């Protein structure tokens, strides 16, 4: 029977099916961090269970870590305790930990791929909804709750119902200044924040194939923002080139064998999808969000919708109140206060290069606080090697140390109440970047443009000036 | 896990769509290392102002509305996978959340904590909201064994779907981990027989 890429990977991991339709799914890779793992370790201790496969689990500290002075103890006591508990638990259960100070430390969804832990054809989980990021490599990767973290620790398996299948095709070429982030924000604006609920998504089409691995990770990262369980892209030469020579990538004959297998991981021509959507790349422009969920997005030249079939008028009104914006008006040219370039969506080396490339010799506007937070120690090291840090600092950005930072309002990096932040992160929920903070999601290019002008800006106009 | 079989209770209405888990429990309250006490910060920023004073217009601060059933708009629990959202809802005292659909991860997290995510049609959800608006003390009965949801005011009885395995777990208070451990021979066999290169 013809199979989709998702079927091929999922079905190869089904240990058994139980009455009622649930399947026992084997998990190849388990990533953990300090926030969603302590209760799982407690559960193992309470039940007297060992960690079943320590060679399939890797830990890092990312959500609570400060992005300034990481060599000093964490000032915030509860965050410090959580990070310490991760260290203690990893020691007790003999788990590899890339904690603070380790050269591999970073956002869990940045370090997995850059170390070659992520690879095509595997099943991968983490107690974090943006685990969908790893689908960029043709892995079945998805976020889980802490009870499930404990289940994987104890049994290397989960009990799941197989999700339905959706394919999203984007055909054509993205215009200059339009990035992977704009592509996914556009798709989510079309389907809404719940439009993918119950589905696993495959992204396909010439515009997706043309993306770099960094771009593909940005797309798959935000699958959860339309409610999808995960998203994935068939591996190809771009994938193999990215993985070759990474720390944990196979080598020699193992590499050849792996690539031969990975090449079979494509959707068969006549495979069935429960739903399929097709979009034209030329319809996508630089995107910004105006509301309080990632589905509330629009082209930067557009006006905020007065009503919408997708969101419902009450939701838009509620969002306008929180954001202190007016439906029917554009966002372009509106003054902003903060720019955050970072998070598991857009903190990779390519994102930092794009920002530096756009800035040239321009400066951050006086009215704007702009911070750049590399996704990992390795990204940071690479940026420094290329001199990107100096250029960013010269332009007026703060160049920070690796972590989740201002994406989620958990560590010290927060946006103050009532302030507008153009952010390359993934969520514009109420209070996400700090109580009362107002988030406008955008690409790294659009965020950099806003940093320069101090306003919501169509980055294409800065590109023209800067040819 | 606490078993759940049947419940008759009044309900708390939250007629807002796309309630995300950052609203249910903001990230700054995820620093605990146990599962307890999260109810205190349930809907923290909707419930309390910046000076930690209760906001009078929020439903959980209105003594008129009580009960073990939370009724919410479509796509409840979207966003982050934080199980803390389910812990907060349970710790506050809810055993059932009614909506027209739930985000996938939240739904699983709720079931793993003895909380029933009960899916009703959009029409029925509207009716439930209207019933509570007319009479905040209106009672509803959730019978998991019969898979029925009864509006005691109108007498409307509807059936709801739930996975038969998850139903058994909820009724008996079983965790998935117990079942998975019972499959350990099959899991070991699967590991031995795999030929997948990418596993090396």
Find the structural class of chain B using helix and strand composition: alpha/beta
Distance N terminus to C terminus of chain A? 51 Å
> In which range does the helix fraction of chain A lie?
25-40%
Bulk shape of chain B = globular
The secondary structure category of chain A is: alpha/beta
Mean pLDDT of chain B: 95
Q: Mind summarizing the main beta sheet of chain A?
A: 5 strands, parallel
For the record, the CATH architecture of the largest domain in chain A stands as: 2-Layer Sandwich
Just give the CATH class of the largest domain in chain A: Alpha Beta
Q: Return the average pLDDT of chain A rounded to an integer.
A: 97
Q: What is the name of the CATH superfamily of the largest domain in chain A?
A: Aconitase, domain 3
Secondary-structure map with pairings?
The complex is a heterodimer of chains A (467) and B (200).
Chain A: H1 5-11, E1 14-17, E2 23-26, E3 29-32, H2 38-47, E4 57-60, H3 77-93, E5 96-98, H4 108-114, E6 123-126, E7 140-143, H5 146-155, E8 157-160, E9 164-171, H6 180-191, E10 199-204, H7 206-209, H8 213-221, E11 230-232, H9 237-243, H10 252-262, E12 275-280, E13 287-289, E14 297-299, H11 313-323, E15 338-341, H12 349-359, E16 369-372, H13 377-385, H14 388-395, E17 398-399, E18 420-423, E19 438-441, H15 444-453, H16 459-465
Parallel strand pairs in A: 3-4, 3-6, 4-5, 6-7, 9-10, 9-12, 10-11, 15-16, 15-18, 16-17, 18-19
Antiparallel strand pairs in A: 1-2, 2-8, 13-14
Helix pairs in contact in A: 2-5, 6-8, 12-14, 12-15
Chain B: E1 6-14, H1 21-24, H2 44-47, E2 69-72, H3 84-92, E3 96-99, H4 104-111, E4 116-119, H5 122-134, E5 139-143, E6 148-151, E7 157-159, H6 164-172, H7 176-182, H8 184-193
What does this structure look like?
The complex is a heterodimer of chains A (467) and B (200). By secondary structure, chain A is an alpha/beta fold. Chain A has two domains: 273 residues, 2-Layer Sandwich (Aconitase, domain 3), CATH 3.30.499.10; 179 residues, Aconitase, domain 3 (2-Layer Sandwich). Chain A has 16 helices and 19 strands. In chain A, strand 1 and strand 2 form a beta hairpin. Chain A is globular, with a radius of gyration of 21 Å. Chain B is 32% helix and 16% strand. Chain B has eight helices and seven strands, in the order E-H-H-E-H-E-H-E-H-E-E-E-H-H-H. In chain B, helix 3 links the parallel strand 2 and strand 3. Chain B is globular, with a radius of gyration of 19 Å. The mean pLDDT of chain B is 95. The chains are: A alpha/beta (467), B alpha/beta (200). At the A-B interface, helix 2, helix 3, helix 5, strand 8 and helix 10 of A face helix 4, helix 6, helix 7 and helix 8 of B.
């Amino acid at each position: 029977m013809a199979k989709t890429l998702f079927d091929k990977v999922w079905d190869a991991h089904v240990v058994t099916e139980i009455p009622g339709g649930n399947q026992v799914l084997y998990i190849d890779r388990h990533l953990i961090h300090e926030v969603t793992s302590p209760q799982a370790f407690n559960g193992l201790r309470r039940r007297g269970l060992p960690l079943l496969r320590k060679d399939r689990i890797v830990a890092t500290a990312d959500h609570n870590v400060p992005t300034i002075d990481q060599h000093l103890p964490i000032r915030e006591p509860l965050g410090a305790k959580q990070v310490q508990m991760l260290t203690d638990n990893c020691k007790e259960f003999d788990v590899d930990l890339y904690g603070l100070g380790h050269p591999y430390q970073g956002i869990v969804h940045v370090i997995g791929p850059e170390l070659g832990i992520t690879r095509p054809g595997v099943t991968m989980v983490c107690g974090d909804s943006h685990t969908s990021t790893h689908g960029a490599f043709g892995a079945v990767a998805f976020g889980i709750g802490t009870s499930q973290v404990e289940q994987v620790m104890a049994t290397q398996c989960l009990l799941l119902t197989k999700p339905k299948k959706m394919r999203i095709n984007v055909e054509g070429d993205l215009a200059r200044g339009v990035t992977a982030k704009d592509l996914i924000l556009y798709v989510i604006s079309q389907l809404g924040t719940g439009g993918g609920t119950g589905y696993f998504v495959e992204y396909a089409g010439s515009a997706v194939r043309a993306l770099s691995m960094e771009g593909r990770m940005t797309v798959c990262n935000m699958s959860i923002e339309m409610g999808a369980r995960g998203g994935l892209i068939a591996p190809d030469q771009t994938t193999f080139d990215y993985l070759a020579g990474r720390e944990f990538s196979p080598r020699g004959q193992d590499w050849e064998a792996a690539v031969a297998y990975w090449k079979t991981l494509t959707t068969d021509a006549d495979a069935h999808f429960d739903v399929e959507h097709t979009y034209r790349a030329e319809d996508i422009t630089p995107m910004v969000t105006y509301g309080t969920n990632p589905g509330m997005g629009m082209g930067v030249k557009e006006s905020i919708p007065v009503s919408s079939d997708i969101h419902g008028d009450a939701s838009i009104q509620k969002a306008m109140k929180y954001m202190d914006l007016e439906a029917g008006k554009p966002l372009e040219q509106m003054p902003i206060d903060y720019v955050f370039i970072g998070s598991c969506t857009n903190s990779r080396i390519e994102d930092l290069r794009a920002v530096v490339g756009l800035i040239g010799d321009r400066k951050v506007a006086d009215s704007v606080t702009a911070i750049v937070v590399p996704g990992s120690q390795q990204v940071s090291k690479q940026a420094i090697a290329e001199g990107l840090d100096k250029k960013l600092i010269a332009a007026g950005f703060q160049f920070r140390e690796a972590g989740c930072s201002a994406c989620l309002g958990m560590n010290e990096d927060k946006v103050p109440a009532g302030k507008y932040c153009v952010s390359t992160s993934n969520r514009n929920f109420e209070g996400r970047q700090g109580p009362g903070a107002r988030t406008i999601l955008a690409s790294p290019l659009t965020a950099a443009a806003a940093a320069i002008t101090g306003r919501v800006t169509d980055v294409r106009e800065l590109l023209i000036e800067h040819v | 896990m606490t078993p759940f079989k049947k419940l008759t209770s009044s309900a708390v209405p939250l007629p807002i769509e796309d309630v995300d888990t950052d609203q249910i429990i903001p990230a700054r309250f995820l620093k605990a290392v146990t599962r307890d006490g999260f109810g205190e910060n349930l809907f923290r920023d909707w419930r309390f102002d910046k000076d930690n004073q209760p906001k009078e217009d929020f439903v959980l601060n209105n003594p008129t509305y009580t009960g073990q059933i939370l009724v919410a708009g479509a796509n409840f629990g979207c966003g982050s996978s934080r199980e803390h959202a389910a812990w907060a809802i349970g710790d506050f005292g809810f055993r059932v959340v009614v909506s027209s659909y739930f985000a996938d991860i939240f739904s699983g997290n709720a079931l793993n904590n003895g909380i029933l995510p009960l899916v009703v049609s959009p029409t029925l959800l509207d009716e439930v909201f209207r019933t509570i608006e007319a009479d905040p003390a209106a009672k509803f009965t959730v019978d998991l064994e019969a898979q029925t949801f009864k509006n005691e005011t109108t007498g409307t009885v509807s059936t709801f779907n739930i996975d038969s395995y998850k139903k058994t777990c909820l009724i008996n208070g079983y965790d998935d981990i117990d079942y998975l451990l019972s499959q350990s021979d099959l899991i070991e066999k699967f590991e031995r027989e795999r030929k997948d290169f990418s596993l090396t």
